[in-house]
Amino acid sequence: MAKLPVLFRAYIYPHFVYGIQLFMFCSMASRAKLESLFRRCCRVVLRDTGQFPLISNESVYRLTGVFPLRHLFQYTSAVMLYKILVLKQVPALQSLFCPVAHTRRSIRIVPDNVIVLRVPMVSLESSKRSFAYWGAKLWNSIPVKIRCSESLQMFTKLYREYLLLRLSATIGDQYDILDFV
């Protein structure tokens, strides 16, 4: 019985994780199918626990120890942004983001050591799907305590806990790519 979760994490889960940055930009119908397939895979893992099919979608994710695909996308994107903005590991992508200059008014709200990004003005709906736009929105939506993390390990730990707390509020099937912000 304990072998199914291990097999799921080893053989099935990586197929969903690979290319998650691209999956989220497909049509809503395709994303809904992917989410449904992912939930079905998680439920198969839980079938032998005796709780299937009486458990909620939130419980399915909690018991299998994985995020829904949209949270996985948000998590991997936030980690990438931390590497770009704080650790400066990807200099080619740093030019996409423009930090906001701190003013006297903003100092009271956000400490100096916290990076706040300027969200680019866009006139077309399709421009909202650019990494510069939704990346800035995502980064600014992360709580200040998490953005101030001293290391990548601390950031990933705190952000994972934050997403787990938000899990119950965002389980519905219909969502857009910018709904996570």
DSSP, total strands: 0
Let me know the average pLDDT. 81
Note the gap between the termini: 38 Å
Q: Specify the number of helices.
A: 10
Q: Concise description?
A:
With about 180 residues, the chain is mainly alpha-helical. The chain has helices at about 5-15, 20-25, 30-45, 55-65, 70-85, 90-95, 105-110, 130-140, 145, 150-165. It is globular and about 55 Å long.
Key traits:
single chain; 181 residues; mainly alpha; 57% helix; globular
Describe what this molecule looks like in 3D.
The protein has about 180 residues and is mainly α. The protein folds into two domains: about 5-65, no CATH class; about 75-170, no CATH class. About 15% of the residues are buried. The protein has helices spanning about 5-15, 20-25, 30-45, 55-65, 70-85, 90-95, 105-110, 130-140, 145, 150-165.
Write the layout of secondary structure elements.
Blueprint: H1 3-17, H2 20-23, H3 28-46, H4 57-64, H5 69-85, H6 91-94, H7 104-109, H8 131-141, H9 144-147, H10 152-166
Helix pairs in contact: 1-3, 3-4, 5-10
